[in-house]
Structure formats: C-alpha cells, structure tokens
Amino acid sequence: MTMLVKFFFTLLMSYLIGSIPTAYWFGKYLKGLDIRQHGSGNVGATNAFRVLGKGLGTLVLLIDILKGIITTALVADGFGLTEVDQRIILGIVTVIGHNWTIFLRFKGGKGIATSLGVLLGLMVRIKGLRLAVGLTLSTWIVTFLVTGIVSLASLVAAMALPILMVVTRQHLELVILGVVLCVFVIYRHRPNLKRLMDGTESRVSLSYRRKSV
After folding, report:
1. Per-residue CA distances from 123 to 87, 149, 164 (Å)
2. pLDDT tens, 62-73?
3. How many whole angstroms separate alpha carbon 83 and alpha carbon 90?
4. 3-class state of residue 159 by DSSP
C-alpha cells in the first residue's frame, strides 16, 4: 500500500469513526427512542445527559472523546502517519464526521467532545500542547461554573483555543487547527448564539449538575 493510498484510507477511517452517532444509537437501541425528537434534538453528549440519563450520557461523552483520540493517536500510529500535519488532518476529518455524519443524512453533533478528543490525542504525541489544551479546558469549566450554560462555555473555550495556541507558541499548523475547530464550533452553535443574544438559552440548574457529574 503506497503512502498516498494509505493516507486516503485513514481519512475514510477517520470520517467513519467520527460519524458514529453514539447518542442516537444508544437512544434507539437501548431506550427505544429517537434522541433527535427529545430535548434540544441534538445528537451530542449534552442532550444525551438530558434525555438518556447520567449513565448513558457519560458513556456517550467518553465515546465521542475517544473517537478523536483513536484517530489522531492510534490510527495515525498504526498506519505510520506520524507527522504532526497528518495527525491534524485526521483529527479535522474526525470532527467533520461527527458534525456531519453519513449515518444521519449528514446531520450530527456539535463537535465539542470529539474536538477535545482530537486535542487529547495530539497532546499524547506533542508534549508542548498540554498547556494550551489544559487552559482551554479550564476556560470551559470556569465559564460553565459561572454561567451554567453549556453552549456559552463551549463557544468561549473554542474562541480561546486559537488564542491560547498562539500565546503558548504552538507551531503554525496547530494554530490553524485551533482556528478550524473554533469555526466549526461557532458554525454548529448558530441556533445557540441566537438564543444567547435573545436571552433565551437554557441553563443547567445546580440540581441538574449534581445529577449529571
């Protein structure tokens, strides 16, 4: 298998792994419901917590994160794609798969958990990335604890990511990754942005947070 064929094969693998609609399949086969018809209608981890409960919601979150780790670390290593830019491309394709999954007519999640998985997978191989990822995750946590709004925490963390990439002096390709992931998050959160501006975006109550973490 030539390197070019190998690369295209891993791109397809990454897209299909990212496309696994975890929340939808769990809802359908374990709860007998279509998660798209409940809660926010999104097939991501946040709605899985609301609709499927704490246990399955946690499992959805972990699997969606794992998708990004698998492609950027394990798939890349397994096929000898060890260059940083190769890992980054596989990671981006994985997030594309999650956001626009072939299994649900190209309507997927919002990519937060899978984007985190991509960053964690890269962090395993790129030690200098740890600070930027840690600060980004801290930004999400602090914003969520202060506001109780998951979408706002995700948007703030996404916008902070490329800035933190620059501040921590990451290589250009990682800064570009930060910009791409930020754009994806903002684009997928357009309805949330409208609700945030209207002041109608839902908050996670303290009691809900106790049940969900």
Report:
1. 11, 27, 14
2. 999 999 999 999
3. 11
4. helix
